[in-house]
Amino acid sequence: MKKIINQPENIIEEMLSGIVHSYPELVHRVADSRVIAKNTTNKQVGLISGGGSGHEPAHAGFVGDGMLSAAVLGDVFTSPTPDQIEIAIENADQGQGVLLIVKNYTGDILNFEMAKELAEMNGIATEIVVVDDDIAVEDSTYTAGKRGVAGTILVHKILGDAAGHGANLATLKELGDRIVAATKTIGVALKAATVPEVGKPGFTLSENEIEFGVGIHGEPGYRREKLQPSKDLAKELISKLLAAYEQKPKEIGVLVNGMGGTPLMEQFIFINDVLQLLTKEAIHVSFHKVGNYMTSIDMQGLSLTFIDLADHSWQKALSSPVSTISW
Amino acid sequence: MKKIINQPENIIEEMLSGIVHSYPELVHRVADSRVIAKNTTNKQVGLISGGGSGHEPAHAGFVGDGMLSAAVLGDVFTSPTPDQIEIAIENADQGQGVLLIVKNYTGDILNFEMAKELAEMNGIATEIVVVDDDIAVEDSTYTAGKRGVAGTILVHKILGDAAGHGANLATLKELGDRIVAATKTIGVALKAATVPEVGKPGFTLSENEIEFGVGIHGEPGYRREKLQPSKDLAKELISKLLAAYEQKPKEIGVLVNGMGGTPLMEQFIFINDVLQLLTKEAIHVSFHKVGNYMTSIDMQGLSLTFIDLADHSWQKALSSPVSTISW
């Protein structure tokens, strides 16, 4: 394993310190916690997210005005504990309640639900939006149902915009569930990630092999195959995504998300193929985003997310300015 | 070679198309060219940059209000041709001349100088700022003198701010030369990049080996050694950078730049070590930036850039808002 780290057992502490000291104008660490919070406080519903580390810039990179109030970091690929999540909730609450945006993994769901109970015992109203946008497989290594992946970033953005405009907790919960239903993601991996504490890749693909539908913790996908041209990958992923909608969307947003080890060059070539194919499908793309947003440490590969933008206000919400490290 | 591409000979065309179609609200392609220009035109000195591709998001990601007027893309690791640079100059000129920001590689210098001559024959005043921030080695595979690397992004930013505030061509040229003199970079590589047309890594490091001072095209550095903890790498790179200043700076900006294949987790751990060591040196850091800005395709490694911020207006210029894809 070749990584620029010190002791593997200290990576979360050091990374967290690196983030807050690099962007002191935007975020800070809540004392004695693994919570990164924004510096400003606004009278609005608090939005928090989090999960295992290793998906940087998610979620700390999306803390700031117009997106998340705070993010809570677990160990690598491991849910944060309920007490840490509760600290994030307490920090985010401005008297109007807190919405928890949680990727659908069994450990995360359990811990965020426990934190919700703790918060409610302390008089803070909370709701949970569970993101399960990965359409590759039903149930997985760490998940009942579908996994939550890169589409979570779009959920952060639209909810962040709505919360900033004064939406209340019940409205945000209902909106969040609708955004999740409209958001579908599927990925492809060329090479597995190496968790620092483990020291070797989580799975092995041969020199010419790729895997469709791999999860962001290296969970198995649905097919291994010989590496194909970008155009053919785009064709397969698009057809899977469109088939997952009950009704074929007319207008969508597209997110191409790099997994951490895939350069922008490939991501831009891939989205070029995606956009050309969507033109042929007569689907209008009114929002685009390309880059590393929900990574799997150093995995090589990418994911493709569609969001149905039938509700035009979502397009506007996706495009509004924010003050975060990484949006 | 495992890459998400189609035919290697089409990657520039397809990447360029992917960039402009993903960010149509910010940039467009100048017809029949390899020039990406911003959509707005302002009455100011034009700023252009460019060079070989493979360093994404540089330079197209820095085109927009407050930074570059246009970027011109060469083949992978190959200078753009003078006629293409001349198209960028013509496009960027608003009657007040155009400043060319060029990384110090022999091919780039030659071609940008020829384009400058062409532009002047067409009545456009031009100046060139040559960036040679890489202090690792004197002269290199493609360079006489020092190489131009990630510090170029900071030059774009401060000059972009000054041009937007109405600085004239002579002022920008003089300012640019001063910024370059204040900007020093040094890098370390864990694994070489693979150029798609070549199909294999540009050099080989053994399983535990790193190379100090590698260039962004895989040019040789100054020492190979066993992989060290992040803290020790930080110590070495800082001491080299500080030694390159005639006078030890009191206040600096710090850029940690990922080379394309190194995850943010490692970059944040590394900057955490850098910032702790600089505190011990009693050097104040008033600007920070972490991420993939000047990459070498999928190289694993990073570079560290310092900019002396004795002139406080530069700190302000680095922090002003811009409308670009990637700053």
UniProtKB/TrEMBL annotation, chains A, B:
Annotated ranges, domain DhaK: 7-327
Gene3D superfamilies (UniProt xref): Dihydroxyacetone kinase, domain 1, Dihydroxyacetone kinase, domain 2
GO terms, biological process: glycerol catabolic process
GO molecular function, one term: glycerone kinase activity
InterPro entries: DhaK_1, DhaK_dom, Dihydroxyacetone_Kinase
Keywords on record: Kinase, Transferase
Domain of life: Bacteria
One Pfam short name: Dak1
Enzyme Commission number: 2.7.1.121
GO cellular component: cytosol
Protein name, UniProt field: Dihydroxyacetone kinase subunit DhaK
Species of provenance: Enterococcus dongliensis
Gene name, Swiss-Prot/TrEMBL: dhaK
